[in-house]
User: What shape does this take?
Amino acid sequence: MTGIQRRKKWNIKIINRAALVRISILGIIFITIALWFWFALLKMPGASYRGQLPPLTVEESTLKDALQIDIKNLGGDIKQRNSEYYESLQNTSKFLESSFNQASYTVNKQEYRIGEQSFTNLEVEITGVKHPDEIVIVGAHYDSAFSSPGANDNGSGTAAVLELARKFAKNKFNRTLRFVEFVNEEPPFFWTDNMGSLVYAKRCRERKEKIVAMLSLETMGYYSDDKNSQKYPFPLSFLYPSQGQFIGFVGNISSAEFVKKTVASFRNHAKFPSEGAALPEQLPGVGWSDQWSFWQQGYPGVMVTDTALFRYPYYHTLDDTPEKIDYGKLARVVYGLERVIEELVN
Assistant: This one.
């Protein structure tokens, strides 16, 4: 072997070693990022409930009946509720205002105009005793999409907010608790300056309000034990169940600690399957409700959902009607949220 050949062979060995070092470094970086993503954003405290659901308690049965009455009113009697069905949207606002009043609340109305039409966000509040400046918001949008009756999207969330407000009406807490029914979440106002929750969240920021937690109740009433009934945006299907029998808690990366706190509390109190994640808000579905508006203003927010279009076959259709809702399971979820809210405000 000549000297030139030996030098070439030596240079190849050096290049191969350098390539291996680079590959090893990249592998370590990838594994580190994957581990961080799992433990910081996806790994939730506690364990999701598994097994047969216990019989409904007396309180859950009462809750089930109340939710069913309100959702039948919203998705069965009033039906379509948006700017194209303006009278029905106004009737929904009047129904919610009257219901809050009957629960002994004074309703604060945030009205704003789009063209010739006026739209209203409805807010009720229980002022905190020790930390009144720290505010927990529980909200949902009461409009429906296109010509859909919107029993699940979002009659279920709207009714849940209303029922939770009734439950807490005569209580006192350390922090201030607000219940808000938002208008105009659906197209054509979705992710625009006229989205009701964004109008509201911007006002919170302008007033320098300290929103410490926001729960967005979005499409919560449909569940299925069938395999492959649950879909996900890629690559989440490798990490979560294929059966759509759970309630989901979804936040953005900035809300990761809030997501974990919420899931931990729910799992501690509710005997119902649950999954949670803090994900980039650009991922399809992650920011598709009113918590997105609060993220834009720098507030922590979590969406509580049955995952909507990733599970619900009647999403945004004429078939989103009250009989599609599993009222027993919805009641279990809302009962669990009662306990979550109690911990958040105290």
